[in-house]
Structure formats: C-alpha cells, structure tokens
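Summary for the steering committee. One of the milestones for this cycle was to obtain a three-dimensional model of the protein with magnesium ion bound, which we needed before selecting residues for the alanine scan. The sequence and ligand used are listed below.
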Amino acid sequence: MTPLIEADGLGRSYQQAGEAVVALSPASLRIWPSQRIALVGRSGSGKSTLLHLLAGLDQPSCGKLAWPTLGPVESLLPEKVALVFQAPSLLDSLSVAENVALPLLMAGQGRDSAARVAFALKTFGLLALVDKLPQTLSGGQMQCVAMARAIVGQPKLILADEPTGQLDQLSAQALLDALFRHLADSECALLIATHDPVIAARMDIHWHMEHGLLSCGERTAGSV
Ligand SMILES: Nc1ncnc2c1ncn2[C@@H]1O[C@H](COP(=O)(O)OP(=O)(O)OP(=O)(O)O)[C@@H](O)[C@H]1O
Ligand SMILES: [Mg+2]
C-alpha cells in the first residue's frame, strides 16, 4: 500500500519580531488510507501549523512532503483533501447549502450537487438549516456545517482542526458518531487536532505535539 502522505524532516519556522519561532521541529510521518489519528497537544504546540502543511496550504521551511497517491499539491484542496479550519470559515453571504456545495463547484461538479449537498447535511442532521445564513447559526452549528462541507466531495483525507471546539460534549460525540458512520466503508483517512480527551480517545492512533516536537505513536492507555 502507498501512503496518502509521506513527510521526512518536515519543519516550519516563523519570523516573529525578527526572531525565528520553531512551530514544527523536523518531523517524519506517514498517513495511510483508513487511519483515524488524533493530534493532541497544548495551545501553541504546533497542531494547526502541521495540519496546514499537510493540506498543502503552507510551505515547509525544511524537509520533504509528498502526497504519492493524491497528485500535485495544487490539486489537493478541496477535492482530495478536506481541511476543516479551526477558525470559522463559512462564507457569510452564502446559505448553508451553498457553503456545503463549494467543494463540488470548485471541483467542477456543480451540476449534480443538490443531492450530494442534501446527503452531507442529512449525515449531520442539518437539513433544517439548509437555507440559513451563517451569521444566524450558533458556533457549534457552524462547525457541523463545516464538517458537512468536508465530506461532500468524498475526499481521501480529512484534516479537521478542533472540529468540536464549540460543541457541548453530547453534540461533539454525536458529530463524531455521524462522521464515523459515514466513513465506515470508505478508505478516507481522518486526522483530528483536538483538546478534547474524549474525542481523542475514540481515535486509533495518537500523535502528540509538545513545543513543536511531534511524537507519532499507536494508541496507549492514558496517552491523551
Ligand atoms: N502565521 C504565523 N506567524 C508567526 N507565528 C505563527 C504563525 N502561526 C503560528 N505561529 C506560531 O507557531 C506556534 C504554533 O502555533 P499553532 O497555531 O500551530 O499552535 P496550535 O497547537 O494549533 O495551538 P491551538 O491549540 O491554540 O490552536 C505558536 O508559537 C504560534 O505563535
Ligand atoms: Mg490550532
């Protein structure tokens, strides 16, 4: 089998007030189809930095990064790799349905989008919100819509950055239940950055970030 992502010595530094801040120390990793990975670590440890690199949205400062089965970096988002941003990312002027349809439009699949959008919304119990504008939604509802937008194009990899940060515990679990049900028969891999130990505990693999240092490991009791 070929990995979806292979990274060797991947690192990212930022300039802050003339000084280099190492957000990600050189790290090597592989992501394989069907994997369920939790990325945990304290605020500022580098989780979002890593996700943005893996999505091809940001350039590494060092190292090699490739998507062997997915193709060139320009072709990744949003068709093959779906990125759920940590910050609100719905477009204000578009309805919920139009927001969810965006990945299909960007992939040139807009013609038959209505049924697929309805299916993605139904997956997360959002059909009642279809015509609403984002500013009329709660923060948690916006996160659920962002997740519907992530699955609509049937990507090969979902990178979700704190996707349940605005949801209460029960709603967060319901979101993950729905996502796991949806992905059950697919080879789509899932990487979730989360501060929530209950969400992390449901993933098979735990990666830990500390001050930009990534440790990749299998699931171990009490490792969250
Ligand atoms: N665009 C940027 N310019 C300069 N420094 C940045 C930039 N983005 C992130 N950083 C720095 O990189 C480090 C890692 O930030 P990152 O957002 O990846 O952390 P995080 O683990 O996602 O945190 P949180 O859990 O709060 O979301 C921090 O020190 C942050 O200040
Ligand atoms: Mg973050």
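Key point for the committee: The beta strands are 5-16, 19-31, 36-41, 62-66, 81-84, 157-161, 189-193, 205-210, 213-218.
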